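Q: My labmate handed me this sequence with no annotations at all. I'd like to see what the chain might look like in three dimensions before we decide whether it's worth expressing. Could you predict it?
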Amino acid sequence: MKYKLIALDLDGTLNTDDKTITPKTRDALLKAQQQGLIIALCSARPVPGLYKDMKTLELEKHHGILIAYNGGKILRAEDKEILHQQIFPRGLAIEILKHLEHYPVTPIIDDGERFYVTDENGYMVRHECRNNQMECTEVPSLTDCLNFDLVKILMSVRPEELWDMLPQVSKPFEDALVFVRTAPFYIEAMPKGLNKAEGLRRTCELLHISPEEVISFGDAENDLEMIKFSGRGVAMGNACDALKEAADEVTLTNNEDGIAHSLERLLTAGGC
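A: Here is what I predict for the chain of 272 residues:
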C-alpha cells in the first residue's frame, strides 16, 4: 500500500506528557513529508492550539492540513484558508450553557482566538489556556457574551466525577449532539455526526486521497472513528482499551517515540 497522508492526534499521541515532540518523532515526520506524504494534525483543540506543532513539523512548507475542534474546522497550514467549518446552532448552544449551570462542570467556549469562562480560576481553565497558547476572558454570563460562531462547548470536570456527569449533562440533548470524553478531565459537546473521521473524510475528498491511503495515530476515545476510518489505524501504547481493540496495530507510547517506531516500518515496507 502506498500511503499518502498521516493523521495525528496531538495530546497523548504526537506530544509527550510534557507537551513536546521528541527529536526522533519530529525527524520521522519531516522525512515522511520529504517523501511526499501530507500530515494532518487532528485535534479537539481550537485552531491556535495546533500552531506550535504545525511549525515544529514545518507543515506550512509541505502542504499540511489542520483539523481542529474534532473535525469542526479544517484549514490549510500554508495560508490558514478555511476549507470547511461546522457551526454550533446558536439557540442550542445557549440552551446547553444554561443547562450546564446546574452541574459541577466548568464550561469553556472560544471564538477562535480567545477563551471565555465565568471563572478564570475554574478547574483546568489555566491548563487549557496554556495548552492552546490562548488568552482567557472572564465574563458574568457565557450566554450573554455569545455573539460569535461556536464550534464546540468544552467542559472541564474532576476525573472522579466525569463518568457520573457525562450522562447527566448529555441526556437532554442526545438527539442533536454528541458528548465525548477527550481527556480524563474534559467532556466536549459537538453536533451529531461531527468527529475526527468526518473531518478526515472531508480532507481526503479535497486532496483526492482514499481512506486506504491514510495512516492515523491516536490514544483517546475521540480518536476511535478516525482509527476505524483509516487504512492503517495505529493506537499508541498509552491508548485507551477501546482504541487498542479497534486499531490495526498498537505501537509504543507517546513518550517512547511510538509514531516514529511505526513509520519506520510502514514507510520502508513499500508504503511511501
